[in-house]
Write a sequence for this structure.
C-alpha cells in the first residue's frame, strides 16, 4: 500500500519550453502533496506544499509563477516548470501524506529534468 | 525551528558487521522522527518512525533506530549489514504541530563492502 507514482521518470527539453510532471497516489487519497527538488549529492529541498482544492504554499525563495502546482484531486498533483532554463535542471520528487493515522510521507520515484 | 543533523557524510562498513548512521535533532515539543533511504535515481523509501512509546523502533529491512531524549539523538542501526544496504540515508523531523512538512538532514551515504 501507499504507492506514489511520478510521470515522466525523465524528460529532456529545450530552454524556454514548459514541462509538466504528474504525481499520483495510487492506492490512497492524499490530502497533502509535497514537491521537492534535489541537486546532486544534496538533500531534498522542499519547494511547495499542496492541498487538494486549494492553492499551493510555496517555500521562501521558490517562484510560484515559474513552478506552477495544481492539486486537482485527492490522487493527483502536477508541477509545471514554465519557461524552463538550464538552471532548472534537477531531480524533482513528490510525496504524499495525510493518510488516516499515518504521519510519514510516501515518495514518488522522482523525475529527472534536463533543460538544454 | 526544528532541525536535524547528520554529522557523517559517509559511513563505511564491512558486510556482516553492525552499522550505525547518526542523527541528532533539535525541536520544540515532542519530536516526530523518521528515517528514509534513497537508492540511486530513485525517490525515498520510508524505513521507520518514532512518534511515542518504546525508544527502540523497528522498521523495514531489518533496520531499527534508538530514540534518546537526553542526547537528542535518533541513530539508525542494523545488526548485520548487507551490500545491498548501500544507499543514501536521510533522517527527518516533522516541522512542528499542525503541519505535515518534514525537515530533512543532509543525508549520509552508507557504503557496505563485501
Amino acid at each position: 500500500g501507499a504507492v506514489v507514482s511520478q510521470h515522466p521518470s525523465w524528460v529532456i527539453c529545450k530552454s524556454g519550453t514548459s514541462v509538466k510532471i504528474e504525481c499520483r497516489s495510487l492506492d490512497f487519497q492524499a490530502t497533502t502533496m509535497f514537491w521537492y527538488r534535489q541537486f546532486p549529492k544534496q538533500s531534498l529541498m522542499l519547494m511547495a506544499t499542496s492541498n487538494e482544492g486549494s492553492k499551493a504554499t510555496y517555500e521562501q525563495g521558490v517562484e510560484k509563477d515559474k513552478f506552477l502546482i495544481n492539486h486537482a484531486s485527492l490522487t493527483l498533483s502536477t508541477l509545471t516548470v514554465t519557461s524552463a532554463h538550464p538552471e532548472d535542471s534537477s531531480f524533482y520528487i513528490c510525496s504524499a501524506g495525510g493518510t488516516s493515522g499515518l504521519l510519514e510521507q510516501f515518495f514518488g520515484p522522482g523525475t529527472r529534468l534536463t533543460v538544454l | 525551528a526544528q532541525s536535524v543533523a547528520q554529522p557523517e557524510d559517509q559511513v563505511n562498513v564491512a558486510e556482516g558487521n553492525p552499522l550505525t548512521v547518526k542523527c541528532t535533532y533539535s525541536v520544540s515539543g515532542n519530536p516526530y522522527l523518521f528515517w528514509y533511504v534513497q537508492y540511486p535515481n530513485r525517490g525515498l523509501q520510508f524505513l521507520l518512525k518514532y512518534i511515542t512509546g518504546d525508544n527502540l523502533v523497528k522498521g523495514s529491512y531489518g533496520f531499527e533506530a534508538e530514540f534518546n531524549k537526553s542526547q537528542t539523538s535518533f541513530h539508525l542501526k542494523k545488526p548485520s549489514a548487507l551490500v545491498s544496504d548501500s544507499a543514501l540515508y536521510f533522517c527527518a523531523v516533522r516541522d512542528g504541530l499542525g503541519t505535515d512538512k518534514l525537515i530533512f538532514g543532509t543525508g549520509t551515504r552508507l557504503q557496505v563492502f563485501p
Summary: Chain B has a mean pLDDT of 92.
